[in-house]
């Protein structure tokens, strides 16, 4: 089935068709290679009851398990994380209702302060195109006037509760990772609040003409860490030992991954790993991601010296990423800030 024969809402097929016409055979082969999956894996599983244990040995073992997974994988799963299944399912129902709206209403109605995104409008090749739609919402905007919830007032309530719970969990995990490197975990990381942290509601519609399309193109996250709640459709993949591996969904766990800022702060001890999402040709996929970010003025220095990165603020990092995407079509990220000169 060809893209021009498909009717998609949002109109992703039109963009994909245009890019497919423009792409060279070399770009198409590269895209196919990037979609190859070697194996399915189960991420390291960590029971967070250990962090709340009165037994110091149990607590220390949990902290070190989190650090080990962040060093070797850059990803891990958590159980007994403190966020109720009822809240997650409530948010899930609201999210599905939200994405069921017609494209024009999502794009034009100022829902969640105009935070709606679809596809990749800046893409110049298939390698840069993401077959997905999302609401990328700063926490401070969830309850702000002008969010235009209307019949979605229950969505606002669910998002507020989930954002508070995710924030608490993210701060706990960040503190454990800092503690493992001998850093005072109290108040770490600084300046992470509602004005800088985000919730992202993701929807990956079925693609009727190919399953080998990026729902989300390969990337690393530009934050301290990300917490993900996903459905059981699958599609998340990460780079492990220079190979793409598919993450096996677990209905009882949340997924956590290290972002670029934690890799820089830890002096490359913790790894911000490249990951992507492939779509399903028949089933919708939904996920909710929380991003732990500092203020734009916060300096991301290394916890240990000598550092391999230049000091930079989060604002400088975001601007460099945006500039690179605008000029090259893709993020370059941390290599821009290495003290040693490298060819990019």
Automatic annotation (TrEMBL):
<keyword id="KW-0479">Metal-binding</keyword>
<dbReference type="Pfam" id="PF14226">
    <property type="entry name" value="DIOX_N"/>
</dbReference>
<comment type="similarity">
    <text>Belongs to the iron/ascorbate-dependent oxidoreductase family. GA2OX subfamily.</text>
</comment>
<dbReference type="InterPro" id="IPR027443">
    <property type="entry name" value="IPNS-like_sf"/>
</dbReference>
<dbReference type="GO" id="GO:0045487">
    <property type="term" value="P:gibberellin catabolic process"/>
</dbReference>
<keyword id="KW-0223">Dioxygenase</keyword>
<keyword id="KW-0408">Iron</keyword>
<dbReference type="Pfam" id="PF03171">
    <property type="entry name" value="2OG-FeII_Oxy"/>
</dbReference>
<protein>
    <recommendedName>
        <fullName>gibberellin 2beta-dioxygenase</fullName>
        <ecNumber>1.14.11.13</ecNumber>
    </recommendedName>
</protein>
<feature type="domain" description="Fe2OG dioxygenase">
    <location>
        <begin position="193"/>
        <end position="294"/>
    </location>
</feature>
<dbReference type="GO" id="GO:0045543">
    <property type="term" value="F:gibberellin 2-beta-dioxygenase activity"/>
</dbReference>
<dbReference type="InterPro" id="IPR026992">
    <property type="entry name" value="DIOX_N"/>
</dbReference>
<keyword id="KW-0560">Oxidoreductase</keyword>
<dbReference type="InterPro" id="IPR005123">
    <property type="entry name" value="Oxoglu/Fe-dep_dioxygenase_dom"/>
</dbReference>
<dbReference type="InterPro" id="IPR050231">
    <property type="entry name" value="Iron_ascorbate_oxido_reductase"/>
</dbReference>
<dbReference type="GO" id="GO:0046872">
    <property type="term" value="F:metal ion binding"/>
</dbReference>
<dbReference type="InterPro" id="IPR044861">
    <property type="entry name" value="IPNS-like_FE2OG_OXY"/>
</dbReference>
């Amino acid at each position: 089935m060809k893209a021009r024969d498909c009717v998609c809402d949002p109109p992703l097929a039109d963009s994909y068709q245009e890019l497919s016409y423009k792409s060279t055979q070399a770009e198409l082969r590269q895209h196919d290679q990037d979609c190859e999956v070697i194996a399915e894996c189960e991420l390291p599983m960590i029971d967070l009851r250990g962090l709340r244990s009165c037994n110091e040995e149990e607590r220390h073992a949990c902290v070190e398990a989190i650090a080990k997974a962040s060093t070797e994988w850059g990803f891990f799963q958590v159980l007994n994380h403190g966020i109720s299944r009822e809240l997650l399912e409530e948010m899930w129902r609201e999210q599905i209702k939200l994405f069921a709206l017609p494209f024009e209403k999502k794009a034009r109605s100022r829902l969640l302060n105009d935070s709606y995104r679809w596809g990749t409008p800046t893409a110049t090749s298939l390698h840069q195109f993401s077959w997905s739609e999302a609401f990328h919402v700063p926490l401070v905007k969830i309850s702000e006037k002008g969010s235009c919830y209307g019949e979605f007032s229950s969505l606002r309530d669910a998002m507020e509760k989930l954002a508070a719970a995710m924030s608490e969990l993210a701060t706990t995990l960040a503190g454990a990772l800092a503690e493992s490197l001998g850093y005072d975990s109290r108040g770490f990381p600084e300046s992470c609040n509602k004005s800088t942290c985000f919730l992202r509601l993701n929807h990956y519609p079925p693609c009727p003409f190919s399953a080998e399309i990026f729902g989300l193109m390969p990337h690393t996250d530009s934050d301290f860490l990300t917490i993900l709640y996903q459905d059981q459709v699958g599609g998340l993949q990460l780079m492990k030992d220079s190979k793409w591996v598919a993450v096996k969904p677990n209905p009882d766990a949340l997924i956590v991954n290290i972002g670029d800022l934690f890799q820089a702060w830890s002096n490359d001890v913790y790894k911000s790993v490249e990951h992507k999402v492939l779509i399903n040709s028949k089933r919708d996929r939904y996920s909710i991601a929380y991003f732990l970010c500092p203020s734009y003025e916060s300096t991301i220095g290394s916890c240990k010296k000598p550092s391999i990165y230049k000091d930079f603020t989060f604002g400088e990092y975001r601007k460099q990423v945006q500039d690179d995407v605008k000029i090259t079509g893709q993020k370059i990220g941390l290599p821009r800030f290495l003290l040693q000169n490298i060819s990019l």
